[in-house]
Specification:
The complex is a heterodimer of chains A (about 400) and B (about 375). By secondary structure, chain A is mainly beta. Chain A folds into 3 domains: about 110 residues, Tick-borne Encephalitis virus Glycoprotein, domain 1; about 110 residues, Sandwich (Immunoglobulin-like), CATH 2.60.40; about 100 residues, Immunoglobulin-like. Chain A contains 2 helices and 28 strands. In chain A, strands 5-4-3-2-9 form a 5-stranded antiparallel beta sheet, with no helix packed on it. With about 375 residues, chain B is an alpha/beta fold. Chain B folds into 2 domains: about 210 residues, Tubulin/FtsZ, GTPase domain (Rossmann fold), CATH 3.40.50; about 100 residues, 60s Ribosomal Protein L30, Chain: A, CATH 3.30.1330. Classes of the chains: A mainly beta (about 400), B alpha/beta (about 375). The interface between A and B is small, with 9 and 13 residues.
Chain lengths: ~400, ~375
């Protein structure tokens, strides 16, 4: 509905313009006055007035205000292609004051269209614009989009990160002299390879290119990653630039393994008794623990025999655990400490963790020792009974 | 080592034997429970045997083992009747001698008995004869206890006849102990008996120990037999233990011969036939001069004195054994016994006459129902 309304308005404007033009002609007819008319022209459009025809050939430079137009006159008396400087009047056949025409580029909208003023005498009739019957040539307008991305959103100190800078020519013209500036180097990273990024200097429309370089995070903290600046020109040497969106990234402390040793076993065993102590080595860190060597000792060393103190484990993944057991045997009463020490590579160098537990070897319980007293008592009683029987008559 | 047999016959003999066994446990210091945790310690191989027809008398023994108590079955004793006792012995002679024979061979036997009771006074002469018959070389010494004089006519009669029979058997001698003489001890009758029994037991074991010891001056079983064969072959023993270490050995010897320390009232100076003095004590107490002088003084009256000296730590102890050439006390006993027997006979005659007179009232009558 809205589209229909717009179309109607445009038709109304055209009709009104035509009506006004007719009024002008009628005025010219009434005298030999110079008149002018402004037209918006696209490449290939023509304006006819009298025997003159002005055709927009090329907009050479928007920045410099150079436009090429062809002005011709039927019969071949005039056929000239000339570069027009903006706001400079160009007279043909003496200009409008001499029954010729004066053409002025009053504005250059872009590389496709300009605003043109045609001055002429009313006697030549009404100037009319004819749209180009040639297909519209695609505009030569390169547009380079640039994007900078990290291959991971969470980075820890020590981790490598790949930075990808992607350029794509989303415009219609070839981008030339492409230059990427990804500077300055971030102090939180060391640049391992691929830096500075290298991008092709030329990208055709729709063509893309990317550069990858590898960094290593060396310092934790919140990092502001600045935008990547890309500069280029189009085929007409018009310089252009674009930049990526800056963003922030957090570098976390370096991930490492952290082992914990749990010892579970009886707090006491009987003298000459045996039992087992369960050992669990748990990786509560974020990295794998490798080359784990477990060693242990018993204090005091005599009186409690512990077997299985030494053990080697290749690795323990984060969150995983390794279980095994120690065999203990008490041979002398007392309090003992079983101490385990695990050395491992935690990702940031060698680390060690210790744990211990106490085990008491109990004194022998002589629960029925008092029964031994009955032996001498029984012997005495037996002796006395024998004596009693010996003397009993 | 001497092989010694000690036979306690009858109630009195049993109790003296029990005192001997008690002495082996430590004497008067021995606890009543000593037999439960000690073993009797005799100086030689001593076998004891208590013989009685009254089982109750055997039951009263405290320090004599059951196997050393021999009951001769005859109801409950012989009732002080020596004739019953003799019959009981003859009926059980083999059993009695068999029990003795089980205990092996012996060098010396002490037959300990009362002269007044039933079993002891009747068994002992017969038993001594059997011992002499069975053991050819045995020395038999009778330890005879004389009764209290006022105990009654039967006991005096028994004592008189028993002593005569004991003198007639082939025993090597008689050692007398007189209950009447022991009346001087104060206290109750039971304590007095225990003291008498203890004195006899102590002297006998000291004698056995001395005869079996290595003496500085030797007296042995032969000497003892010679002493006992002297005089009437009736003797007695005296004993004295010095009250302190400072007392001289001479005092100890003299005290052992004093009437207060004798078992039978005798005048050693006048009546002793032969004597044996056994002295025991530490070397420092054994003064040779004092011993010699005292022995010489005793020899002047007793004729011959054997002396034995045993060196042993402790206060001086002296045992004197002597036989008598005269026993006036015995004569008194026999006279008293005769009077008692005469009185008994007269009483019985009078009673018989009274009974006959009573029966005369019904002589011509018959029972009417």
């Amino acid at each position: 509905m809205r589209l229909k309304l717009i179309v109607c308005l445009l038709l109304f404007v055209l009709v009104m313009s035509a009506a006004l033009a007719a009024d002008d002609d009628s005025d010219d007819d009434s005298g030999d006055e110079v008149t002018f008319k402004d037209f918006t022209m696209n490449l290939g459009d023509r304006i006819d007035v009298g025997d003159y025809r002005m055709e927009l050939i090329e907009i050479q430079s928007v920045r410099d205000g150079l436009v090429v137009m062809r002005v011709s006159k039927s019969g071949g008396a005039l056929d000239e292609q000339r570069a027009f400087l903006i706001d400079s009047a160009n007279n043909f056949d003496g200009g409008a004051d001499s029954d010729g025409v004066t053409v002025t580029i009053t504005d250059i909208f872009d590389e496709q269209s300009v605003k043109t003023r045609i001055e002429y005498k009313e006697s030549l009739g009404s100037a009319r614009k004819r749209a180009s019957d040639r297909p519209a040539a695609p505009p030569d307008r390169p547009e380079i989009s640039v994007k900078k991305s990290f291959d991971r959103s969470q980075i820890r100190v020590g981790e490598e990160v790949k930075v990808t800078i992607t350029l794509k020519n989303t415009g219609t013209g070839q981008a030339l002299g492409i230059s990427v500036e990804d500077a300055p180097p971030l102090p939180e990273f060391t640049y391992l390879a691929g830096y500075p990024p290298k991008i092709r200097e030329t990208l055709d429309p729709g063509q893309s290119d990317s550069a990858v370089y590898v960094m290593n995070a060396v310092k934790e903290g919140s990092i502001h990653v600045p935008a990547v600046e890309v500069t280029y020109t189009d085929s007409k040497k018009n310089a252009k630039s674009n930049s990526s969106d800056p963003f922030n990234i957090q570098i976390s402390p370096k991930s490492r393994a952290e082992l914990a040793i749990n010892l579970e076993g009886p707090s006491s065993i009987a003298l000459d008794g045996e039992s087992a102590v369960n050992v669990s080595i748990i990786n509560i860190g974020a990295a794998s623990a490798t080359r784990i060597t477990v060693d242990g000792e018993v204090k005091p060393p005599q009186g409690l025999a512990v077997t299985g103190l030494e053990k080697s484990i290749f690795d323990i993944q984060p969150g995983a655990q390794e279980n095994y057991s120690l065999h203990i045997a008490g041979s002398s009463p007392g309090d003992y400490s079983i101490m385990l020490k695990a050395g491992y590579d935690g990702g940031d160098g060698s680390r060690a963790v210790e744990s211990s537990m106490k085990v008491s070897v109990l004194e022998r319980e002589y629960k029925y020792l008092y029964l031994l007293l009955t032996i001498p008592i029984a012997m005495v009683a037996l002796w006395m009974y024998r004596r009693y029987r010996e003397y009993k008559y | 080592m001497l092989n010694v047999l000690m036979l306690g016959v009858g109630q009195c003999g049993n109790r003296i034997l029990d005192a001997i066994n008690k002495e082996a446990f430590g004497g008067s210091s021995a606890s009543k429970l000593a037999k439960y945790y000690l073993k009797p310690k005799f100086p030689s191989r001593v076998e004891t045997l208590a013989v009685n027809t009254a089982v109750n008398d055997l039951k009263e023994l405290r320090f004599t083992t059951a196997k050393d108590r021999l009951h001769v079955p005859n109801l409950h004793g012989v009732g002080a009747n020596r004739n019953v006792g003799k019959q009981a012995f003859m009926d059980n002679r083999d059993m009695i001698m068999g029990e003795i024979e089980k205990r092996g061979d012996f060098d010396i036997a002490f037959v300990i008995t009362s002269t007044s009771g039933g079993t002891g006074s009747s068994f002992s002469p017969l038993l001594i004869n059997e011992l002499k018959r069975q053991y050819r070389n045995i020395t038999v010494i009778t330890v005879a206890v004389l009764p209290f004089r006022e105990e009654g006519s039967i006991y005096l009669q028994n004592a008189a006849f028993c002593m005569r029979e004991l003198m007639e058997v082939e025993a090597e001698g008689i050692i007398l102990a007189d209950n009447q003489y022991m009346k001087r001890f104060s206290g109750d009758i039971a304590s007095a008996y225990d003291k008498i029994n203890g004195m006899i037991a102590q002297r006998l074991l000291f004698l056995v120990e001395s005869l079996d010891s290595e003496m500085l001056s030797v007296t042995d079983l032969g000497d003892f037999k010679t002493v006992m064969n002297g005089g009437l072959r009736i003797g007695t023993m005296g004993f004295y233990q010095a009250e302190n270490k400072t007392q001289s050995i001479r005092d100890a010897i003299e005290n052992s011969l004093k009437p207060a320390n004798l078992l039978y009232p005798a005048n050693v100076a006048d009546d002793a036939a032969r004597a044996m003095i056994i002295i025991q004590g530490s070397r420092e107490h054994l003064d040779v001069d004092e011993i010699t002088k005292e022995v010489e003084r005793l020899s002047a009256s007793a004729g011959h004195v054997f002396k034995g000296i045993v060196v042993k730590k402790g206060r001086p102890k002296v045992l004197s054994v002597f036989t008598l050439a005269a026993a006036p006390e015995l004569e008194g006993i026999y006279a008293q016994a005769a009077r008692a027997m005469q009185d008994e006979k007269e009483k019985r005659t009078r009673a018989r006459k009274q009974l006959d007179d009573a029966f005369a009232h019904i002589e011509d009558l018959e029972e009417i129902y």
